[in-house]
Amino acid sequence: MSHSQPRSVVLGTGSELPSKVLTNSALEQLVDTSDEWITVRTGIKVRRILEDGKGSADMAYHASLRAMEDAGVEARDLQAIIVGTVTPDYPFPSSACVLEHMLGARDVFSFDVNAACSGFLNALAVADAFIRTGKIRSALVVGSDALSRLLNWQDRATCILFGDGAGAVVLGASEDDGRGVLSTRLRTDGSYAKTLYVPAGGSLKPASIQSVQRNEHTITMNGKEVFKVAVRSMEEISREALSDAGVSIDQVSLVIPHQANRRIITALADRLGLPLEKVVVNVDKYGNTSAASVPVALDEARRQGRIQPGDIVLLNAFGAGFAWGAAVIRF
Ligand code: UT7
């Protein structure tokens, strides 16, 4: 028996995708685009859209229930709830507080992290740090976003890319040396803040008739720039996280990358020297679900039996900020 520092192990995973499906052909009716363009340039075929009258906390709730059931953990067992989101139900309080109440958790602290598409990786790294220091022994880590709420349905460069969803992971502390989160790495570069952002709705430019008329509450993006930096940065941070974990690339059983664009994923796999069989791709079904993308893909991979005990899995993500991150987990 070893008495080393605790590690965070994944006790359970869950996900929630809204039932409403938006196809490429439906988008052809909205903007000057085609199923062929979207398929070739992004790999996306359909995405899910959260129904009106619901917020992202609702998706977070259903994903969390599934993760907790998978883990065999009750709400009262949770000591922290950390949600990665840029589409909370309200500007404040946090989605995590809304979720905590929905779940009926008690004696818990909850907060959101805002790191856009990297939100889940950031939330995971923070929860892992709390567990490693011994402050807590369990955490619910969620990525939940409804980017459909921030889209300009007249902008073909952005409205075709995104979808809604939520994914959740229950972490528990374990002194079993072998398993768990082996390393996490996070990075940001705020000089790119306006390369991908929502100009209005914050304190700088609060909602006004004019801001709404100018569509300033929707996503503005230089896609080409994001693409370039995303591939380079995810490769770099993945290599750093692997090196921290003392793991070589050929020991990795599965990579779960952020699902933004199939071409970004294949370029990344290529640079890492990994065959596509070792890379999870579900962007065709859900589009870019922001903070939900990695935990949804992780949950699907586990439920499909693609992750077995002992497997080493590499997660990575990249998004607005720019903010990006990677984690290495042994299951
Ligand atoms: O998580 C991070 C979030 N964001 C991302 O990851 C996005 C990363 N970027 C991308 O995925 C790609 O840059 C896009 C998919 C957004 C765009 O693909 P691209 O190959 O970089 O295309 P482009 O922006 O260079 O556009 C090529 C052409 C342009 O026409 P011209 O100027 O060549 O005549 C665009 O106007 O395609 C046009 N175009 C479209 N055509 C049909 C742009 N959007 C569309 C569209 N349908 N939806």
Structure, described:
This protein is of the alpha/beta class. It has two domains: about 5-175, Thiolase/Chalcone synthase (Peroxisomal Thiolase, Chain A, domain 1, 3-Layer(aba) Sandwich), CATH 3.40.47; about 180-330, 3-Layer(aba) Sandwich (Peroxisomal Thiolase, Chain A, domain 1). It is built from eleven helices and 13 strands. It has a five-stranded mixed sheet with strand order 1-7-6-4-5, with helices on both faces. Strands 8-13-12-11 form a four-stranded mixed sheet, with helices on both faces. It is globular, with a radius of gyration of 19 Å. The model has no long low-confidence stretch (mean pLDDT about 95). The chain binds oxa(dethia)-CoA.
Q: What are the segments in which pLDDT stays under 50 over at least 5 consecutive residues?
A: none
- The CATH architecture designation of the largest domain is 3-Layer(aba) Sandwich
Give the number of domains. Answer: 2
Q: Which CATH class of the largest domain?
A: Alpha Beta
Taken as a percent bin, the fraction of beta residues is 15-25%
Strand order of the largest sheet: 1-7-6-4-5
| Named CATH topology of the largest domain | Peroxisomal Thiolase, Chain A, domain 1
What are the SSEs and their pairings?
Elements: E1 7-16, E2 20-23, H1 24-28, H2 35-42, E3 46-49, H3 56-71, E4 80-84, H4 95-103, E5 109-113, H5 119-132, E6 138-146, H6 156-159, E7 164-174, E8 180-188, E9 196-197, H7 209-213, E10 220-221, H8 223-245, E11 254-257, H9 262-272, H10 283-286, H11 293-303, E12 312-319, E13 323-330
Parallel strand pairs: 4-5, 4-6, 11-12
Antiparallel strand pairs: 1-7, 2-3, 6-7, 8-13, 9-10, 12-13
Helix pairs in contact: 3-4, 8-9
The protein binds oxa(dethia)-CoA.
Oxa(dethia)-CoA binds next to helix 2, helix 6, helix 8 and strand 12.
